[in-house]
Amino acid sequence: MALNPQYEEIGKGFVTQYYAMFDDPMQRPNLVNLYNVSVGGAGSDSGWNRLGILWN
């Protein structure tokens, strides 16, 4: 699995969006939508949905 060449831009965009949602008390409950729990152990593809676009 190769890293997406735009990983820095994607990562910064995710962090910007995450903190904008976190800082807004009305949007904070929606942060749960950014997280995706997958079945599997350590090293599985579980975690933040947006981070999935870092790999192609």
TrEMBL record:
Top-level division of the source organism's lineage: Eukaryota
InterPro entries from the UniProt entry: NTF2-like_dom_sf, Nuclear_transport_factor_2_euk
Listed Gene3D superfamilies: 3.10.450.50
Domain NTF2: 10-35
SUPFAM superfamilies: NTF2-like (SSF54427)
Signal peptide: none
The protein's name in its UniProt record: Nuclear transport factor 2
